[in-house]
Amino acid sequence: MRAPRRPRGFSLVELLVATAIGGVVLTGICLVFISQAWQYQAHASRRAVQSSVRQALGFVERHVRNAGYGVDPDRAILAYDSFDAAGNAPGNGYPDGITVHARDLYFRRRATTVGTDFLQFDRELQRPLHKGEILLVLCPGAIRYAYVTVGETAPEGATTVQLDTAASPVDSPSGPPGALFHEQEQLSDACFHDTESPVVVKVERSSFYVAAFDDDGDPATPDATPYLMLHRGTDINGDGTIDGADAAPIAVGIEQLQVAYILNTLGNTPPPLVGVEDTVPWGETWHTGTPETDRPRLDDAYASPRRLGSHPANIRQVRLTLVARSTKADTQRPGDDVLTPGVEGTEGPSLPSGTTSWRQLENLGTTPAKTFDPRGGGFSRAVMREAIAPKNLLMRSQFIPIHPGGG
């Protein structure tokens, strides 16, 4: 009978080999986990970027589509090419700004007393009228009217509103309404003091531009986070001044806003395109750049020569391009480049000869401002473009709302 073998343990070599094999397996598992986690974060970042740019474009689109409702087409849209929000001035290589105006559906008052510096309403205000809000005063029949701006915030329950009598307001998307909405001198016209009181409605102003903010207080640093901003042209924070501090961020990571305009044309004539091959006139200078006799009128026929010139009242499409980037840079990748065109022909079939195609970022140029350069930096980026037709710019007469409410 064989004697039983004595139990023995593992040798040192066996332990070392087992430890090495276990270490290799655990290292592989960790590397797979880290890779999956990194890919998940990368995909989550891209989804967040795409969601941000979609929401931002949808928000801006709704406002641009309503531009000109109840407002003269010649002041429905203001264009600000390459706007430096930090300096509140035109810049070089900055995102564009755009301001649109449309009538508020829920505000209507009778003006029992009209002065060139105040309005007295027939009923109390149900909510404050902030400094900078635009009012449209319509004579009976709406043949004569005047745009005016609130000069001092009128609290809830007030019946008298002071008007802004500034001679030359700052023309900026982050400032108060400009000269186009300071027609208080016209309120001395006899129709505003007739036996039938004029009607006062409110005009909503919506300005969109891109600004950058950073924790260290320096918006010029590369790690500053860009936001799409909405400014109403009013003193929201109550400090008595209308400036960038009254704006509200509506979308994070929006790095670029580029705007171009397709103007009116007849027949087979190619439509003029402003803001691609050339720069857009700054703000109200586009409105005043043509002689008085050439500006389109509300009652002009659609085929009138005045409706075919280079004037914002003749805009038939607004082309918006937005770029969103991730809020944090990824040090393991160079980052997306949405400015430099790729190899010719990779964008799809070529367009017919003489056709002006979409540019990568319209008229941004090749040297964007450092904070808003849509290239590299380790950021994921998404681009969305849309052409919007603001139908209300075809309006040919003013009107007085018939709803009995007052807002």
Task: Report on the architecture of this protein.
With 407 residues, this protein is α+β, with helices and mostly antiparallel strands. The chain has one domain (50-340, 359-394). It has 2 helices and 15 strands. It has helices spanning 12-66, 285-288; strands at residues 77-80, 83-84, 89-90, 97-114, 118-121, 134-138, 145-149, 160-162, 199-213, 225-231, 248-252, 254-263, 273-274, 315-325, 381-388. Strands 1, 4, 5, 6, 7, 8, 9, 10 and 11 form a 9-stranded antiparallel β-sheet that branches. The chain has a 4-stranded antiparallel β-sheet with strand order 13-12-14-15, covered by helices on one side. The longest helix is centred in the N-terminal third of the chain and has 55 residues, at 12-66. The chain is elongated, with a radius of gyration of 29 Å. The model is unreliable at 343-347 (pLDDT under 50). It holds the Pfam family N_methyl. Residues 327-336 have a biased composition (Basic and acidic residues). This is Prepilin-type N-terminal cleavage/methylation domain-containing protein.
Number of helices: 2
Q: Taking all residues together, what is the mean pLDDT?
A: 85
Unreliable segments (pLDDT under 50, ≥5 consecutive)?
A: 343-347
Count of the separate structural domains: 1
Query: What is the helix fraction of residues, given as a range?
Result: 10-25%
**Rg on CA atoms, Å:** 29 Å
User: How many DSSP-defined strands?
Assistant: 15
Sheet having the most strands: 9 strands, antiparallel
Classify the secondary structure makeup into a structural class. Answer: alpha+beta
The proportion of strand residues reads 15-25%
What is the 3D shape?
elongated
- The protein's oligomeric status is single chain
Order of helices and strands: HEEEEEEEEEEEEEHEE
Gap between N and C termini, in Å?
109 Å
